[in-house]
């Protein structure tokens, strides 16, 4: 298998490795991963004021919208340490959700083909754990889960 072509970029002071930028995610329009990341960057100013303190679930289409998709709640092991996260207690175990607080986070979502972002109407209290709908959580910045 050929090596992935990797493009290193700096966004908000964070280094991100972008791969497969020419991959078509929306076949009907020919929209690529690069186009999607550029769009997320362009609309970040309008999106960011509404996202802080809200856990984000993502719907991902790794092979484009004509392929299989899946919902992602938990952050996986490849998540950068700088990405803000919140812990939400579930009946089985705590899960760590991403929180969008920067353009860099939106670019990271674009890199992972997270084409839908879902947030609740409530926010976590900035000072730590807060109860919402029977769930509790606290804001965890950086580091690992």
Tell me the layout of helices and strands:
Blueprint: E1 6-11, E2 14-19, E3 24-26, E4 31-32, H1 33-47, E5 57-60, E6 70-72, E7 85-89, E8 94-98, H2 103-111, E9 114-118, E10 130-132, E11 135-137, E12 139-140
Antiparallel strand pairs: 1-2, 3-4, 5-6, 5-9, 7-8, 7-12, 10-11
Helix pairs in contact: 1-2
Provide a descriptive summary of the structure in words.
The chain has one domain: DNA primase, PRIM domain, CATH 3.90.920. It is built from 2 helices and 12 strands, in the order ββββαββββαββββ. It has helices at residues 33-47, 103-111, and strands at residues 6-11, 14-19, 24-26, 31-32, 57-60, 70-72, 85-89, 94-98, 114-118, 130-132, 135-137, 139-140. It has a 3-stranded antiparallel sheet. The chain has a 3-stranded antiparallel sheet with strand order 8-7-12, with no helix packed on it. A two-stranded antiparallel ribbon has the order 1-2. The N and C termini lie far apart (32 Å).
Key phrases:
3-stranded antiparallel β-sheet, alpha+beta, 145 residues, DNA primase, PRIM domain, disordered C terminus, single chain, 32% strand, 2 helices, globular
User: What is the count of DSSP helices, taking H or I runs of 4+ residues?
Assistant: 2
From the 3D structure, determine the CATH topology: DNA primase, PRIM domain
Q: How do the SSEs run, as a string of H and E?
A: EEEEHEEEEHEEEE
Beta-strand content bin: 25-35%
Radius of gyration: 16 Å
Uncertain runs: 128-136, 138-145
**How many strand segments?**
12
The major β-sheet equals: 3 strands, antiparallel
Mean pLDDT: 86
For the largest sheet, list the strands in their spatial order: 6-5-9
Helix amount: 10-25%
How many domains make up the 3D coordinates?
1
Helix/strand-derived class? Answer: alpha+beta
Q: Any idea what the shape is?
A: globular
CATH class: Alpha Beta
CATH architecture: Alpha-Beta Complex
CA distance, first residue to last residue = 32 Å
The CATH H-level superfamily is DNA primase, PRIM domain
């Amino acid at each position: 298998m050929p090596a992935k072509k990797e493009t290193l970029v700096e966004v908000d002071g964070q280094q991100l490795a972008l791969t497969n930028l020419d991959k078509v995610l929306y076949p009907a329009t020919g929209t690529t991963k690069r186009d999607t990341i550029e769009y997320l960057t362009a609309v970040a100013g309008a999106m960011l004021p509404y996202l802080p303190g809200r856990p984000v679930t993502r719907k991902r289409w790794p092979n484009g919208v004509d392929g299989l998709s899946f919902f992602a709640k938990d952050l996986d092991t490849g998540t950068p340490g700088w990405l803000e996260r919140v812990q939400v207690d579930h009946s089985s175990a705590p899960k760590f959700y991403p929180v969008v607080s920067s353009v860099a986070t939106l670019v990271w979502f674009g890199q992972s083909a997270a084409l839908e972002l879902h947030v609740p109407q409530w926010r976590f209290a900035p000072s730590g754990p807060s109860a919402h709908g029977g769930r509790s959580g606290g804001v965890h910045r950086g580091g690992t889960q």
